[in-house]
Design goal:
The chain has about 80 residues and is mostly beta strands. It is built from 1 helix and 3 strands, in the order βββα. The protein is about 5% helix and about 25% strand. It has a 3-stranded antiparallel sheet, with no helix packed on it.
Length: about 80
């Protein structure tokens, strides 16, 4: 517990199979309501996959989307 940071993330996770892959789609609630993030596990960085039409911009490596940052700087406070 000493390693846990302040803030609680509320989200619903959906498992979405597509072709040979599975997307984990997180719909955030509470302070981060309105943010939806999809994640896919690939064997290698450039592995091809079928890109669904609902998939938005790539956010890999963008710290503001990390759970640890969302608990400190919620989506509702972002300038949009």
């Amino acid at each position: 517990m000493a390693l846990c940071e302040d803030g609680v993330l509320e989200k619903t996770r959906y498992i979405v199979p597509l072709g040979n892959h599975v997307f984990e789609v997180d719909e955030f609630l509470g302070e981060n309501e309105g943010l939806v993030v999809a994640e896919i596990e690939l064997q290698e960085e450039r592995q091809p996959f079928k890109r669904p039409p609902w998939l938005g911009k790539e956010v890999t490596g963008m710290p503001e989307y990390y759970n640890s940052q969302l608990s400190k700087h919620p989506y509702k406070n972002w300038e949009k």
